[in-house]
What does this fold into?
Amino acid sequence: MAGFKQYRLGAAGVGLMLGLSMLITIFLPSFDLRSGVTTEMGLRKQLSVGYDAGFSYNDPNLFGPENKPVTVILDKDPSTGAKIDPPMTAFVFKAGTYFAPNVRHPDELGEGVEDLSIQKGRIREAKESQGAVFTIREGEWKGDEVHYIEDLTATRGWQPNDVLSKVSDAHKRYIGQGKTIFVAQGCWWCHTLLPEETQDWQAFGAPPYLGDFNGEMPTAFGSDRKGPDLLHVASRNSSREWLTMHFFNPRLVQPHSIMPRFDYLWGKVDAEGKPIDYAKWREEYVQYREGKRVYPPDVPDPNPNSPARALIDWVLSLK
It folds into this structure.
């Protein structure tokens, strides 16, 4: 009798597990996550990163540099030369570059954001074959303030190549490429992009909203937290110089850091096109670490076309 009772409890447990699996498989997906309204952060992340960040048929090897938008800071109108004050952020998709998911599928933007993006932002007129320049605007929908996407190519006639030619390298950000490098290098094994509703508020900032992730691919929430959460890291530290040293050799800024070096992301030449002598640099660093040298060797500035530059641009976009 006791054996039958145990069998009955086991059968009930199996049935419960099967019921839960069916709930997850069939019932929960019936909720339309697209009904979530995309936030300003969600719009900014998508427009700066582009269609995806690897692990897809478009970029199966996680190369990243191709088919990515360029984020630019505009202080002058690229058509008239008139001053823009305060400067505005625009997202340039050259001809042939895949648009962000929410531009391709505006119904994923959510109520209000979709309506304003189509009616006032005119994003339906954007064509991937011709490229486009987007920005984020503030608007009002049914008494609430929302952010929406504006196609500056449609509303102002700004063309991607014209905008890029008028912007100096100092005002360009390769954020989309940087996220792909973050994924490809496995940074998500040690860092999360998801503060929790615990004491994380004090250390890493507020947890994100559902609308922060609408259409983002991949979300890169992270696998484990061996290092700090990075979702708002640029709000805590926005120093490009510090990050440059940190990625080249973390021990330069944190002597006991367990993070690996990423100096190989610099490539063969620095920002001035001069060859980087890694062997000499490491030899001088060992001398500094052993106390035989007062100052560490200078870290070379990354070349604008290097993976290191793109990775730093992406990290600095996390606010």
